[in-house]
């Protein structure tokens, strides 16, 4: 009998050490190199190339930079507050009242995560540009006013805040609605028994319990808008002002001032890190863990006569954030010019023909976009999978370090990463500028944290004993991975892949600094076309992007081979 | 030479040592229970045997061959062992049949052979009608039996169980206890069973190994452990007991703190230091007046509970100690009254530790 034991004493080849080293190196290069060059360049004079502190001095003395930062921060806070003010009552109505159609509304808002914010900004350009905007045109023709009358103007600071808030409010909404789902109803019941009226209970019990979720969501909205490039570039530039992301981009225009751009990126990085830490601190606080606890059936409040007011509020918000923008995009894609009334005469497939067959840049851009989307999704999912395995199973000392590296890019805003990658790879050594490689690197870095988070939480869901049971039954480590871990993770892998794919094809902030004529992407073409005012073509491209995103999500949800996964709302 | 031997086994995580030199010999076909309080290192010892954790010192030998030592570890898949996990660890994406067949597939058996072996074991464990179900569609007890079947079907040399019954409700636990013992008697695997439930250990084990703080306190048959504990820890942990202490007079005589003399029928006292004696609750006799010459002391009743079949007394005796005694129901002493306790010498166990 002991023969089997001896037989078992073969030295199994352990691949985890080489894999660990390779991954460690790869992740370090991805994360550390761009940051290193940003810091290096920020101390380098744009004139001669020597060491200087002038770039940092300019951060305080150059009024255009200071102004851009001030406006960006003001804008971000305004967006955060607006998102929170709109999203919190929405979330409560949808999660805790008998509002008709609340499940549908919730699904709709969750689905609107897929909208690229820059597309939303363009939709609002179509709707609310001072002269040609549909709302203004309709208003004038309704009251017979002349063309100097302007009802709404998106090219203002207020307009910018509004347009961005439309696409950041789902972050707050989702967090608060989920938190409301989890407020144990016995806490509320306790208050009601003690004589607290519905309003008192809401104010004294429910509200404080979801406050952390509100704050955390607001911080995400602030962070998103602060680091956003697309929407400000579309709305602020015509309005004649810069936010910090567009300012950094402008420093790349001829004559490029790379040192100043690098220095200007650093405060953005620091603010991002601070906001993320604040968010983590808020969500990590003791009060919030109550929410994670037992989840009794949430108490549903009856709206009674308030139903209609609530309905009007929800529909108004949804019109502004979903129906109107999507309607504007659809209309523009199928009519000659945005302002035309919709009749049989004005309907046309002209823009579709132009985009799909005549405009030479689109085919290349579509190909590049989908190629990069698929490559990035596949590579990131693979890296995230292996990293998450090594980290959660702690099969090797120092694996935790990989997890830190894989999460770190969360704190690097897209535009900052763009600067860093440009400085790292657009030099004579690498000469990657103008190739798809530099974009691939950028997307991989940007999407890694999301992919990693997905994979590590799903690994945590696979009990290690399931793998150990495979081992003790006689399967090697690899065999166990293949027979047991892989099938159990399939749905999460598919979900992560979709997640990354959708995120990649809409990326603009880093792309805008790294793209060239040969490496155009759909998002960049949309931005370019916006400069030339070709809204019809933009809307066609926007629809193509949205259709691709939804198709991928749909396929992942439906095809049983892929596991029919449940896509999580993107955080 | 025993079949499974642990020799000076040590496991440290960084600065903390959780298994501190365990020596244990298990004969072929024996069922050994590792019993001890939470955190004493039972699971760690079991996982050392399975090869999931590498030893920091000492050796594990199976059939004379070293499988674990500080120098190297045979991986779990090379040990021909089976394990039943506390969480059952049934693979949720495989049916009952597939779960059980997996180990045989790895052994490259023909599908007829696999079918035959799986059917056999499913019959023994009364799972045959459920073979097409997924684990999520089974009750706790059924899941438990699937994990048993899965572990047994590969005919392991050693079967390891980590608190296999802790997730079951009380009735089912009782039933499964006998089921495990029955299957063990049928197949005679060398079995190491971890539990912190002493009655589980008493009913299933050939040998009980009481562990405390990373060490073995005592190993022996259930009767040995219960009737002849060697240390205060074992006496207290198994069955509950009264510990009386005092000055040592001779090898088996103690002058207790309450100023009375105890003669012990078994055990040896520590050669120096405080002398301790264990007397089980139900061995103590209680009466309202003095009926014994020796091994007796009087105290005051502090609590009395009627439990139907007997009465449960707490009596405080001189010297500050409180003694718990179980008496027949007809001995009726009100709280606050005087009570005479008798510790029959044959039931007084002198403890060395
Ligand atoms: N990977 C580890 N790293 C550090 N300490 C550990 C590790 N695994 C176990 N320990 C410690 O070793 C000690 C023994 O753990 P073990 O799981 O063996 O206890 P146990 O006897 O099985 O307890 P229980 O009855 O609660 O299951 C505990 O104090 C535990 O905290
Ligand atoms: Mg344990």
From TrEMBL, chain A:
It is found in: Cell inner membrane; Cell membrane. The chain crosses the membrane at residues 19-43, 69-95, 107-130, 150-173, 209-237, 257-276, 308-329, 370-392, 399-424, 430-450, 535-556. Its main location: membrane. Keywords: Cell inner membrane, Cell membrane, Membrane, Transmembrane, Transmembrane helix, Transport. The keyword Membrane applies. InterPro entries: MetI-like (IPR000515), MetI-like_sf (IPR035906). It comes from the Bacteria. Residues 69-279, 366-556 form the ABC transmembrane type-1 domain. It is a multi-pass membrane protein. Belongs to the binding-protein-dependent transport system permease family. This is ABC transporter permease. It comes from Shinella pollutisoli.
